[in-house]
Specification:
Layout: E1 2-6, H1 10-21, E2 25-30, H2 33-42, E3 46-49, H3 55-60, E4 68-71, H4 76-90, E5 93-97, H5 101-105, H6 107-114, E6 118-120, H7 122-135, E7 141-145, E8 150-156, H8 168-175, E9 180-186, E10 189-191, E11 204-209, H9 214-220, E12 230-234, H10 238-249, E13 253-258, H11 261-270, E14 275-278, H12 284-289, E15 297-300, H13 305-318, E16 322-326, H14 330-335, E17 343-345, H15 347-363, E18 369-376, E19 381-387, E20 408-415, E21 418-420, E22 433-438
Parallel strand pairs: 1-2, 1-4, 2-3, 4-5, 5-6, 12-13, 12-15, 13-14, 15-16, 16-17
Antiparallel strand pairs: 7-8, 8-11, 9-10, 9-11, 18-19, 19-22, 20-21, 20-22
Length: 451
């Protein structure tokens, strides 16, 4: 497809890179020549220096012939205006990055009036992901499908786990729950395991499981769990606001440490039930004064990656808290992979997942739509949810009779309000939501899992 990305910042770069790797023709617009040079030199995309809200510029870059325009600048108003003008130029589909809480509350009206195909709020999406992790504090990642009815939970098997050294087939019998181990990462190796695969301590595994069974499964693996009641948030930006709002609704105690006095006053007004502290969250004396050692979770959400990493390292060493770290820069992601900073949160990655899912559905609008898309295990594995419209390739066939491509697993089927952990005798039917885990990147249709 022909796609225009407005904005060459971190989010725009991530989108251009991902969509280019999926085979689309990408043009990036920005007034910042240096940012344009960066994305065009490192990704195989076209760059155009100009204002994305200019009718002339959008006409020049071919918006009249484009399939999609994604407005991802750091200004909501600019994004919405660019989408409106693009619709006038060529009637292409449009996606706007909208971050401001005020606009988010009115997004239904704005989408209708501006003709947006989709809006993405990376900060709210990041906050929602963090809440899921807080609900399952022993997990590294919690991905949801079928409107929250199917979950893929990632965790590491501890050194003293009673299940280390056991084959998956015997483990499923020991657990006594409807659980399916979908992916195993051992060092750099990724495996979609069979029943005879033997797990080892230190393996990172992804499990398809109901949330109500997580405590049972963690206990069986020797992982200690506890309910999170107190959360410390470092930084008072937009993600912090969204996160605090969601946590307070769940009656979780929230403290926010923010440097800017004016922002502290603003947060005190819009979050009256949170405790707002004016100070530097990297100052150990403030952390001690605010009893960081008693926190159940510490979320490093400051503007600078270096500060977030330092705080998370300190929290990991001096507390038993669940630690989450926001990372902006691409160059840091590989550096901190083996550093104990807990779960990393990347708004650009979340945005790329959302928009890639939509683009794949555009390519396949009348077949089996991609309803959800997550990249797990250092982005080496994709977990996708398909809404089944037609089953010509699956009709009347049991899963055990299907020829499925290597390193691919049907991990869940959601049918008539019920999640099914599929066995060989199950079938795929119209109306099902099917969750697939695979090392093959770029699948757009469920039938592509067949060899």
């Amino acid at each position: 497809m022909n796609i225009i990305v407005a904005g060459a910042g971190r989010v725009g770069y991530a989108l251009a890179d991902q969509l280019n790797r999926e085979g689309h023709e990408i043009t990036v617009i920005d007034t910042d020549l240096k940012a344009l040079e960066s994305v065009t030199s490192e990704c195989d995309v076209i760059g155009y220096e100009g204002d994305c809200t200019s009718f002339r510029v959008l006409k020049k870059v071919g918006a009249d012939m484009a399939d999609l325009l994604i407005a991802s600048t750091d200004q909501d108003e600019k994004n919405m205006l660019a989408c409106l003008i693009a619709r006038k130029v060529g009637r292409c589909r449009t996606i706007a990055r909208v971050r401001n809480p005020q606009y988010s509350e009115e997004i239904g009206y704005l989408k209708e009036e501006l003709g947006l195909s989709m809006s993405v709020n990376p900060e709210y999406a990041a906050a929602s992901e963090m809440v899921r992790l807080i609900q399952v504090p022993s997990a590294f990642e919690v991905d949801t499908f079928a409107k929250g009815n199917v979950n893929l939970i990632t965790f590491i098997i501890p050194e003293d786990s009673p299940l280390a050294g056991h084959a998956i087939m015997s483990i499923r019998q020991k657990l006594g729950t409807d659980t399916l181990i979908c992916v195993v990462q051992r060092g750099e190796d990724i495996t979609i395991p069979g029943g005879d695969f033997v797990l080892e301590a230190g393996d990172k595994i992804s499990v398809s499981i109901s949330l109500k069974d997580t405590s049972t499964v963690f206990e069986a693996f020797g992982i200690k769990t506890k309910k999170i009641k107190n959360v410390l948030i470092a930084g008072g930006g937009t993600i912090a606001y969204y996160l605090a709002s969601l946590l307070l609704k769940q009656r979780i105690s929230v403290k926010i440490i923010e440097k800017d006095p004016a922002r502290c006053e603003e947060l005190s007004e819009i979050l009256p039930n949170a405790m707002i502290i004016n100070g530097d969250a990297t100052d150990t004396s403030i952390l001690t004064e605010e009893s960081i050692e008693n926190m159940d979770a510490v979320c490093s959400l400051m503007n600078r990656d270096e500060e977030n990493i330092l705080l998370s390292l300190y929290a990991g060493k001096n507390t038993n808290a669940k630690v989450m770290t926001k990372i902006h820069r691409n160059s840091y992601e590989n550096i901190i992979k083996d550093v104990q900073v807990g779960t990393t949160i990347s708004t650009k990655k979340i945005t790329a997942e959302y928009i890639t899912r939509y683009v794949r559905s555009m390519q396949n609008a009348f077949e089996n739509n991609v309803e959800a898309l997550y990249r797990i295990m250092d982005d080496k594995v994709e977990a996708l949810e398909f809404k089944v419209m037609g089953v010509e390739d699956f009709a009347g066939k049991k899963l055990k009779d299907l020829s499925i491509i290597p390193n691919t697993l049907i991990s869940a089927i959601f049918r008539n309000g019920k999640a099914i952990r599929p066995g060989g005798n199950d079938e795929i039917k119209p109306g099902d939501s099917v969750v697939v885990v695979t090392t093959k990147v770029g699948i757009t249709d469920l039938k592509e899992i067949l060899s």
